[in-house]
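Comment on both lines for my students:
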Amino acid sequence: MAYDLAKINMTTLMRPAFDAGIALTRLDERIARSDVGAGLIERQNFADACASLWIDGELVHLEDLVLHDATKDIRTPTHELTIARDVLRTRRRVAAHLPGWAMSADGVRVLRQTSDVAAAGMDELETAAATRRAVAIDPEGEGEGEDADADENLPGIDYAAIDAVLARSEAAIENVKRPGRGGGQEKDPMIYDLDWDEDARLDEWRAVLRQAENLPAVLQAIIALDAWNELSVLQHAPWLGRPLCASILREAGITTGAHLAAINLGLKTIPVDRRRHRDRETRMLAIAYGFLAAAEIGMKEHDRLTLAKTMMDRKLEGRRTSSKLPELVELVMAKPLVSARMVAKTLDVTPQAARRIVMELGLREMTGRGRFRAWGVV
């Protein structure tokens, strides 16, 4: 299916695209000069990964993703949670490289390979690993399991079956990593559409980018995202187009440093009937307003974190130099959520002391559970 740029009415797109570019630049400048900039970027990474799954019709809770990323799972991770973690890692990988890396041939190849590994057995690998972690954390199903020791010789656990799952997962991952992306084996028609030529679709998408290379950066990103969705480039990683489009903004200098625009957060606020409208101009306007909403959400979150940091700093006045509260403040500002185990490990205290310090700082309990609780800034 051809994607013709000549039929796009640029007049209606110009104003919202420039407004979005200005708002994203202002947010980037504020993050670069802020004391809470690093914490805001980390929060945006997690929130954007959850929003990416929401856009694709799946629900992943933020606290589950934070604990899964910290290998502190409280239950067996779902397939959706594994994909969300893959989105999170992709954002971090794109932000860690030079601005032009993600859109280069090598960058796209690596990122495609990451999504293939996730689709080819990473869910099994995570399930088996999390099962062992969950048993170690709470073998009897009581409490948070902070005092649990090693997971050896626990009753009722079939380690042979777990090892078999790990072996199959590792074999699938190695098979995907071989040249040709298919490991020389035919793809399973129950999983893959054999007529779906991803390489040809990717070449067509790059042709669209070449046609738009002389347009302003935000317009390039809008066209790139709409073309990615319309061409359906990848079967099992439709979300990859959004980090790639965010990297276009970063490469153009709209965002800088480690800040990768959280465009999923903004697109989440746009009604689905506008994002998937049959009329291309309506879809592209929805993307432009989604970029603008992402910047506004980021500004509000920055102001919220700045206020929370100021309030917590006041509680540190008059404390002894041996107090663990300053370290706890740094931890909660760097992470969207913290659990008792995370606090205990970072501050080198007992889980009971961790919960007492958390209560002393007045953090908000975010999960609403009696156990496996997590806290965050108000």
Notes: Confidence is low (pLDDT under 50) at residues 119-154, 181-185. The longest helix spans residues 280-315.
